[in-house]
Structures are given as structure tokens and as C-alpha cells.
Amino acid sequence: MRNSDKNPVVVVIGAGVAGLSVGNFLLCNGIECVVLEKYSREHVERRQRAGSLDGSAVRMFRDWGLGDVVDARLSHADVESEGVPLHVDGETRMWKPMDDGDDDPGVFCPQQVLVRNLIEVFLRAGGDLRFDADVSLDDLDSAQPRVRYRDASGATTELSCDFVAGCDGYRGISRASIPDGVLNCHSHEHGYAWLAMLAEVPAEPAAAMAVHSRGFAAQITRGPTTSRLYLQCPLSDTLDQWPDERIWAELGARFGEPVAVTGPITDKQLVPLRSVVYSPMRFGRLYLIGDAAHLVSPMSAKGMSLALFDAEVFARAVTHFVRQGDSSQLDGYSDTCLRHTWDEQIHAVWITNVMHDAGDSRHAGEFRKQLARAELERMIATPA
Question: CA 20 to 30 Å from 59, out of 82, 104, 143, 236?
């Protein structure tokens, strides 16, 4: 084993949007940090996931002097001016869902584009980013946590630090390193899944959704030549049951007309819809950030924005501690982030229930379907 030549204030685990934002925020304030990522740079920069930022997240980057990392090809305001086509049993309606009460419009920004930009800014500013790092964590409840990692060559390095930022997602090592019995897990299973796909076709318009007795469906832009496709399906379905031909036919059936442009489907995943919150969002000197602490239904399009809220609260708390010697903001980190998380879960669960219960009644029943249809009519009639 070899020791690093420096011990940073913060070791950040994970180089996704949350981890890279923490790294950049700390670097902006002159706080020394090291970002460790399990996968290669190529893998991280190509990973396709979320694609929407709300207005508060856009403003956050701008306030930190990082507005250029948001490569926004389309704003929510552009979509909202006309509304999102919402096909209800084949009838096309227009819905304006993007207004989240913020003066700044949100944007569609593919996660891989945001990650690529954040990496470039971080490295250009002299940031320490290490890929292919297989991490383990020790002494998290001590004054000097230890972070060990094995790199691609097999060499092992140990870092001591003041704080660990766990930004490595729902299945990462950060939360798994917390002893049993420390965290409370609050979860809600919606009872169905999304078949989530990436297709090499443009989304015209940028977002379109369908509520149908066969289930929910959507096509959302992920760039000028790429779309995310979503189909509600039973939890028991397998990918083998969904060849490309069936996918395009099913999308056409739920949208009420054949899909105008089809093309190669390059990625397919079955994603059970669930909402999860772990509390507290810290253990000792380890702070859980983003998906490591909570999952929000993808129907809300709030995953990245929720993670960015945590990232900023943590970065400001560490900066306050380093400059003022005051740990009060770090002590309040979990409570501050959990209040925001639960506020977002309210909307996420509500919109998920409405858009799914209003279509396929096999899960929630006909009574819930009629309730959801009534709510759907109110949503369409009154801008969000």
C-alpha cells in the first residue's frame, strides 16, 4: 500500500452529477478535495440517464459561476409556450407541466453532457479526479475517516480526510459502509415498472406523453438525434418480452397513431418505479448526497435537481466549517436536505399516481382510475 502525498479536506465518492458538482463547488471556494470514481472516464461520460434540470438547479450553477456547464438545447419555457402533447386514449390534448414556481426556466440537458462539462471545468481548474478507483471506507465516525482505493494497475492508495461525500448512487459503497441499524429506510413501491429505452431517433416534439388503458408511455428528448422512450409494464416482464418491433408498435398504440420516425434502440432497462428516502443522511463524517440517500420517481424529472440541492448544501456547510470553524451547518445538513427531499416526494408520488392510475386500471382499480381521470382533467384545464 502507498499513501497519497496529500490528505484532502473532502474525499468525494462518485463522479456523476452530484459528485462533480460537489467537487467544483468546493474548488470554487478553495477547499481541497479528491474525487474518486469506480468506472473509467469514457464510461462515465457516455452514461445516459436523467435529462432535465429545474430552474433552481440552473440558477445554482449560474450563482457558482458555472453556468456554462449547462448545455441547454431546449428550455422548459420553450416547451411550455405550446404545452406538451398528452395523448389520452388516443385523443391529443395539450398540457403545461413544466412550471415549477421558479422565475428561472428549467432546461432539458442530457446527463452525459452535463457530466462531460463538469469534468472539463473541474480538471481545467486543477481538480484531482481519479477514475477506475475501487473504494473502501473506514473510521467514518472518527475525526479522520480513511478512504482506500485500488486503481486499474492494482496499486492501493489510502487517503485521510476530514469529510467523505457519498455521491456514488443507490447501489454505491458509501451507504453500504454504514453499519446496520443506523439508517431508517422509508420506501414506497408503485407496483409497476417502466421499460426505459434509448433510441437513435429525434424527439419531435421534445416531450410527448400518453395515458392509455394499456399503460403510460412517453418520448422525451435526449439531444438532437436521441430520445428516451418509456412504457409502463408489469413488474414481472422481462427484456426478452420486448423486442424492438413490439416496442414501436406498443408506443403507436398508446399514442393513438404510428410513431412517425423509428430507429435503432441502443439500450433497454426495466426500472421498477419506487420512492425511497434514507434518514439520517449522514453517519459520522460521511454525508450521503443524491441517489445514495434517496430515489424519486422518474415521472417527476427531479432526480438531478434533487441531488444538486444536496450537493450545494454540503459544499456550503464544509466551506463554512473551514472558514469559520463552525460545524452548525454540517450538523444541520441531514435535516435541511430531508425537508427538501420530502417536499419533492410529495409532488413525485402525486404525479406518478395520476399519470398511471388514469390509464391502466389493473393495478389500482377502476375507482382510482376515475379519481385520476378527474385530476387529469383539472391539470389539463389549469396550467401547473
Answer: 82
